[in-house]
Amino acid sequence: MAEKLLEVKNLKTEFRRDKTMVTAVKDVSFTIHKGEVLGLVGESGCGKSVTSLSIMRLLIDTPGKVTAGEVLLEGKDLLKCPENEMRKIRGSQMGMIFQEPMSALNPCMRIETQLIEAIRLHRSLSRSEARKHSLTMLKTVGIPDPETTLKSFPHQLSGGMSQRVVIAMAMCCDPKLLIADEPTTALDVTIQAQILELMLRIKNEKNTGILLITHDLGVVAEMCTRVIVMYAGRIVEEAAVSELFKAPKHPYTQGLIASVPKLGSGVTTLPSIPGNVPDLSMMPKGCKFAPRCKYVMDLCRNLEPELKTAGQDGMRKCRCHLLNTTNKEVSAL
Ligand code: SF4
User: Rounded CA gap, 146 and 148, in Å?
Assistant: First the structure.
């Protein structure tokens, strides 16, 4: 087993809404090992991005606050780091790629200035050394004419090229952990495949751990070794990717997988999960998925299930009362 890189333990993040606090992320725990890609999936509003922003401590300009838990990067609790130390860790030890590359780049500055600044912020290199390193990074991410790209402004680049620049910027100081939040959602399909391939290549070369946040199960199948499914701010299932696709245990995961189109299946209408993710201030009392679940029982409406180990190796987990119900009882539902 590879070394542990990031351990998130019982993370809880709350947001102030009017005069009350609502819980956006609750009791989230997981581990990423060096060189591993962990997928975090779920519909919009399930708490995926809040989880990543909580890990990076980037909730500062929002009404959100981490109110419990630990985020250990190689054993160091990031939640206890002073902000000036956290600023050094972001960029040097943790890189982040967002969905919209243009929002990560300053539209008024040439790529050259932005890359050199990012490098010199974390490494004691001269301007010319940092420029040389920028060129190397642009070549690493597959930019065909790095000199011209360095001199460009962001608006002169295509979406795919901009995302490559953002990846170069995120990787320029060799971070141990890369957090990629929907990195290919804004790109068309062929560019999407190139960017995913690039991330995998960088991971293999540098042994980077990646937390990949996506709503796209196709991306998960291609990139990840393990996957966590989130719903209403909670982890509802965790499994090796192959296991999850072969036999999803949680009704929500089953619904997500059933709604993915399969080539050659002949199916013309895909099933969807009825209803919506609950509003944070109006969470159901028991299982948060109960209003949408076709297996709902009285127990589900009154008692929130715990996340329990569901496989023999201890690596598979699921949050559902059905786990405690015998097969006979389930078939009678
Ligand atoms: Fe459905 Fe009940 Fe399981 Fe929730 S606990 S997912 S409502 S069966």
Answer: 6
pTM of the predicted model, to two decimals? 0.89
Ligand 1 atom closest to 295 (CA): 8
What is the 251 CA–ligand 1 centroid distance (Å)?
7
CA 36/CA 203 separation, integer angstroms: 8
Distance 235 CA to ligand 1 centre (A): 13
Give 274's pLDDT tier (boundaries 50, 70, 90).
confident
Element (H, E) at 9: strand 4-17
Torsions phi, psi of 5, nearest 5?
-110, -55
Helix (H, G, I), strand (E, B) or coil at 188: coil
30-194-35 Cα angle (round to 5)? 30
Express each pLDDT in 47-78 by its tens digit: 999 999 999 999 877 889 999 999 999 999 99
Q: Distance, CA 321 to ligand 1 centroid (Å)?
A: 6
Compute the distance between CA of residue 318 and CA of residue 305 in angstroms, rounded to an integer: 9
